[in-house]
Amino acid sequence: MASSRNYRFTFSQWLDALWNGDWGNAETFVADDVIVNGSSMAGHAYYIQKLKDDNFETARLDLCIVDNERAELAARFVFPRSPEPLDEDKEWTAQTFFSLANDDKISAVQALAGANKSAGRESNGQINQETALPKRLTSLDLRKFYADYIDSINTGHFARRFRRYRGLIESSFEEILGLRFTIERLIVNEQTQQGAARLAFIGEPTKNFRGIAPTGNPVSFGEHAF
């Protein structure tokens, strides 16, 4: 199995091909039967064409987390212009999870995109001491740390540990009755002490939420958190 450095290097080569418009070369980094957002694409050429149509060559890599134990990567890209006509002058963020097969080709992709609200570091460049890790953790401990964090939200104990996000989390529970989060996928890097998660959450909206009017029925959503 390749090291995390090799995974990152392979990923960087693929991005270079995309950014240079070398679409044919970019196809060679993608498996023939690549799965994109849970659906099998009609070959790697179709997926590369989709990236081309989305003007991927204009994207900037904002953050990349490599999970060397599971051959997975999480990447956050920032596009200078939104594909949506109403927001075409606004930046656009795509948060994407990649899985690599044994031959180091991209075999699965999960992507979520939206208006740019989260990309970039803290303006002061300082670590948030309130959520900082207590010590350097192993990859196993990182997974437990994040699982405990999500559990603290579901059980209502988050205010004791994460005061900074108390208002945001409490308002979410007011807007969505019975709100509950589950971790569908978690990518961690022991060396950088970073993680990225695909979260699923379910609940009953009490007001218009992401374009869905409250109907009295529960709905489910997905989020990518870095």
UniProtKB/TrEMBL annotation:
GO biological process, one term: polyketide metabolic process
Record-linked InterPro entries: Cyclase_SnoaL-like (IPR009959), NTF2-like_dom_sf (IPR032710)
One Pfam family, short name: SnoaL
Domain of life of the organism encoding this protein: Eukaryota
Protein name, entry field: Uncharacterized protein
